[in-house]
């Protein structure tokens, strides 16, 4: 089973010694992983008709 962004972040929070820079870096990585997951699901779920929205735009629309 592929590790999700949430699973990865939990593991990092549990196992890695933390300072503010480390927390910020882990959050940035988890957010990028989440973005990739959402865009992948969007691509996988598109039906045969083109909706005219690329994955990046879709992600930005649902997260802003």
General description of the model:
- Helices cover 72% and strands 0% of the residues.
- The chain is built from 3 helices and no strands.
- The protein has helices at residues 5-15, 20-45, 55-63.
- Helix 1 (5-15) runs antiparallel to helix 2 (20-45).
- The two termini are 29 Å apart.
- The model has no long low-confidence stretch (mean pLDDT 80).
Main attributes?
mainly alpha; 3 helices; 72% helix; elongated
Strand-helix topology:
Layout: H1 5-15, H2 20-45, H3 55-63
Radius of gyration: 15 Å
Q: Helix amount, in percent?
A: over 70%
User: How many helical elements?
Assistant: 3
Mean pLDDT level: 80
What fraction strand? under 5%
Secondary-structure-based class equals: mainly alpha
Q: Would you report the number of β strands?
A: 0
Q: Name the overall outline.
A: elongated
Order of helices and strands: HHH
Low-confidence stretches: none
State the separation between the terminal residues, measured CA to CA.
29 Å
How can the largest sheet be summarized?
none
């Amino acid at each position: 089973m592929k590790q999700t962004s949430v699973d990865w972040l939990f593991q990092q929070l549990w196992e890695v010694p933390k300072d503010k820079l480390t927390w910020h870096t882990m959050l940035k990585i988890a957010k990028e992983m989440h973005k990739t997951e959402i865009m992948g699901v969007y691509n996988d779920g598109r039906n045969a008709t083109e909706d005219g929205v690329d994955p990046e735009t879709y992600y930005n629309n649902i997260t802003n």
